[in-house]
Amino acid sequence: MIQLHDKQFEIFIEQAIIENRIKELALSISKDYSGKCPIFLAILNGSFLFAAELMKSVSIECEITFLRVSSYHSTTSSGKITEVLGLKEDITGRDVIVLEDIVDTGLTMAEIKKQLLAKNPKSLEIASLFQKPEALKTPIDIRYIGFELENKFVLGYGLDYDGLGRNLPDLYVLHEK
Ligand code: IMP
Q: Does this model's pTM top 0.70?
C-alpha cells in the first residue's frame, strides 16, 4: 500500500504484465502496418512510459512525436474545450496512430480525433494502454487496447493523481476503505 496526497493505493497490475502486453500490441501494430511508415502521436504527459516501451518493440519503420492536450472550461459555452497542441509535423496523407495512457469517458480522445482528422491523415487509429469501458460517454473505436479496467481510479506507469505517481513502475488502484 502507498499513500499519495490524501489517498491510499494498492498494487493492481505489475510492470512485467503491463510490459508483456505492450509487446503484444507492438507486434500487432508491426504486422498491421508492415510496408507502411506510421507516425505515432503520443499524448503527454500520461503516455510517456507506454510510448517508450511500445517503441522498443515496434519492428517496422516509423516516426514518433509528442502532443499535449490543453483542457479548460469555457466561460461562454457549456462544457470543456480541448485543444491539441504541439503538432509541428504534417500528417496529411500519413498513417497516424495516437498513443494514450487511458480512455475514461472518451471525451478527450473524441476531440483529439476530430482535430487530427481535420488535417486529412490517410488513416487514424488509437492505441490506449488502459480503458474503462463502463465510463465511456461517447462511442469511440480504439483499435489497440492494453487492458480493460473496472471504473476505478488508477495511477502509476505514467498516470498520475494530482501530479504524483507517474514514476511508479506498476499500476495501482485506489484503496476503498
Ligand atoms: P477522458 O476524457 O474522460 O477519457 O479522460 C482521459 C484522461 O483523463 C486521461 O488521458 C488521463 O489523463 C485522465 N484519467 C482518466 N482516468 C484516470 C485514472 O484512473 N487515473 C489517472 N488519470 C486518469
A: yes
